[in-house]
Amino acid sequence: MRRRAVAVKIHCPIASQTLAALLKGDNDALERDPAAGAILAVIRDDNPLGDFGLYKGVCEIAPGWESFQPGPDATPTLGTSGARSLSSTAILTTYAYAGADIAEALAALMAAHPWEVPVIELSEVELLVR
Q: pTM of the predicted model, to two decimals?
């Protein structure tokens, strides 16, 4: 059976030590990371994000890197205005069924995200479910 959903993809900065620990198999490293831990807490909270009925708080996690150059008026979490930077990133993707009210959850993600300009993508998808 197919079900319409909204994919919520969050690009979350993580410490380089967190990324290194994850790549070595330390699955709890993300929990200890302040930014990622806060984002995961929102996904696991009582809201439609990651709610698959039998499973709650579902999200996929992928390692990544963000390249950016803060402008002169920016107050970056990492890096210096005018200089290119590279940030270790966890890409967390979760889902909510189409029609679910996710406004509060999205506001909580924005509040928990440490970047001045968070990168949170929303896209309509179709999921295969049993």
A: 0.91
Per-domain residue ranges of the chain? 2-128
Cβ-Cβ contacts under 8 Å for 66 (sequence gap 6 or more): 11, 13, 86, 87, 89, 119
Q: How far apart are the first and last CA of the chain?
A: 6
Residue pointed to by tokens 């410490």: 15
- CA–CA gap between residue 99 and residue 6 (Å, rounded): 9
Query: pLDDT digit string (tens) for 46-69?
Result: 999 999 989 999 999 999 999 999
Write out the CATH class of domain 2-128: alpha beta
The span from the CA of 83 to the CA of 19, in Å, is 23
DSSP letter string over 43-110?
HHSSSSTT--SS--S-EEEEEEEEEE---TT---SSS-TTS-EEEEEEEEEEEEETT---HHHHHHHH
